[in-house]
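Action item from last meeting closed. Structure (418 res):
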């Protein structure tokens, strides 16, 4: 079986592209030749990674077309990547699997590819069924039809005219209903959200993200803490986000919670792009600023040295960050947002409270730091990852899904797919 994995970028551009790259690596490791097509290339690429937009001229044309349509509110309307590249190469593959489309790939490309090959689309955010936003937050317009988007400027007639969210959502709805695209949802939450807006020609499935447990090799927290020079009697709290200034990631709630336990003298580790405001708000604590971490082994080491991760996102799907923390036996304290309850059962392997409830979060953090069951919850989190979110489970579930689709797919020229 030969697979094409398609995503916006590589490992360093968020969870969706990380899942895409990991799946390509794991498929290659198990003897299924896989190429990873990426729209926005990174400085260092792997041998099986290639440009989604094609060679230099085609790449420029694709970027120009998407940029031009975006200026008129018609985000990724034209399937430029299909015209200039994919249409010439997809017949070399048995299966085509898309991941993140936002800002890079037209939904019409999915439809065109699905006419020729079994096509899968893992939905990592809500842009697959909205007029364009990644997360609608409190807006429920997507359940009927998107219009007058609250995330777009509506102050002038030009801005209102460029709000084409209704038309873009209508195209996505038509494609989902009319074409044989296999939708994959990492969490039950996002699957239910999508069903409020879409009708599926092919029944969708829920397959959680998976992680490689190999980097999480520290035998205990004390060993990991010692590697950073942290005293064994200090509790360590980690706050992680691609950008700590992203309102959706809720770092402000995490910082306020940390401030509420200053009397317990925790060490604070921050991971991600910081700011002077974030630094100032934590100036009374012993803080280790790690910045962005692209090295999986280093991230595993940081999480292994942490007792608690504060995860305060106000909208999320099935974040890899939580799975990594669980693999490191680090207890999650945070909000019961989106797909987070699929991973964390409060009181069992972590503590979740109502989103945006600062008082409840503060109390949960204090009680967890002081709890005699902190270590036991961490061990349970690790066990739950092994049983439900491992690399092997993720890989086998996907391979079986591919085989099922191929077994009922009309194969040209009597070609045998293994």
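Sequence:
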């Amino acid at each position: 079986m030969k697979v094409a994995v398609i995503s916006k970028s590589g490992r360093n551009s968020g969870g969706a592209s990380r899942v895409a790259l990991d799946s390509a690596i794991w498929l290659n490791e198990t003897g299924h030749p896989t190429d990873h097509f990426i729209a926005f290339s990174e400085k260092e690429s792997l041998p099986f990674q290639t440009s989604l937009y094609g060679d230099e001229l085609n790449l420029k044309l694709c970027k120009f077309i998407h940029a031009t349509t975006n200026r008129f509110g018609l985000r990724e309307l034209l399937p430029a990547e299909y015209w200039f590249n994919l249409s010439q190469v997809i017949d070399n593959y048995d299966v085509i699997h898309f991941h993140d489309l936002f800002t890079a790939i037209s939904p019409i490309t999915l439809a065109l590819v699905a006419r020729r090959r079994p096509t899968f689309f893992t939905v990592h955010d809500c842009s697959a069924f909205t007029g364009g936003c990644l997360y609608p937050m409190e807006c429920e317009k997507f359940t009927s039809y998107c219009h007058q988007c609250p995330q777009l400027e509506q102050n002038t007639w030009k801005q209102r005219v460029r709000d084409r969210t209704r038309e873009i959502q209508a195209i996505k709805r038509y494609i989902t209903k009319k074409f044989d695209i296999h939708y994959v949802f990492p969490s039950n939450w996002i699957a239910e959200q999508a069903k409020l807006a879409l009708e599926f020609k092919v029944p969708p499935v829920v397959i959680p993200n998976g992680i490689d447990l190999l980097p999480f090799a520290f035998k205990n927290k004390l060993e990991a803490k010692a590697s950073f020079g942290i005293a064994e009697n200090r509790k360590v709290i980690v706050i992680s986000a691609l950008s700590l200034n992203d309102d959706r990631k809720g770092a402000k709630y995490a910082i306020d919670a940390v401030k509420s336990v200053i009397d317990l003298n925790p060490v604070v580790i921050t991971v991600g792009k910081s700011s002077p405001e974030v630094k100032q708000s934590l100036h009374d604590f012993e803080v280790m600023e790690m910045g962005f971490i692209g090295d999986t082994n280093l991230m595993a080491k940081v999480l292994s040295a942490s007792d608690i991760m504060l995860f305060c996102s106000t909208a999320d799907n099935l974040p890899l960050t939580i799975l990594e923390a669980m693999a490191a036996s680090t207890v999650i304290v945070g909000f019961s947002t989106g797909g987070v309850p699929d991973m964390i059962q409060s009181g069992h392997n972590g503590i979740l409270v109502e989103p945006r409830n600062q008082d409840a979060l503060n109390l949960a953090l204090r009680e967890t730091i002081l709890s005699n069951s902190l270590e036991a919850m961490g061990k349970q989190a690790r066990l739950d990852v092994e049983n439900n979110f491992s690399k092997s489970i993720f890989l086998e579930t996907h391979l079986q899904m591919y085989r099922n689709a191929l077994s009922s797919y009309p194969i040209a020229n009597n070609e045998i797919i293994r």
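Note appended to the action item: Residues 391-407 form the longest helix (17 residues).
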